[in-house]
């Protein structure tokens, strides 16, 4: 066996490991940022990063946004820098596509402001 073939065999597991690490979702939820708890409770069940409990590679909201924007924008809300509070409030209050609208008794305007600040901070950090 040639030297090049032996080297290729030896480093193949490293390449697979690097591809696996690159495909894994980033740890973008930071505990010290405003709105994190609200996001995790109200938004992350559909729009969080990582795989779904059903084995799907993405949660439904994240997958829908990834498909909609086809790489032009991230599907993960925590990587988006284009969701200021007024825009977020519009989507939350009116709903969009499969996402239902949420009443002020479910998430307040102040909580939406906190989530918007959290999303801006996580986008900037990543």
From TrEMBL:
Gene3D superfamilies: Cytochrome c-like domain. Pfam families: Cytochrome_CBB3. The keyword Transferase does not apply. Residues 1-23 form the signal peptide. The keyword Metal-binding applies. Keywords: Heme, Iron, Metal-binding, Signal. Transmembrane segments: none annotated. Residues 30-123 form the Cytochrome c domain. This is Cytochrome c. It comes from Aurantiacibacter flavus. The lineage of its organism: Bacteria, Pseudomonadati, Pseudomonadota, Alphaproteobacteria, Sphingomonadales.
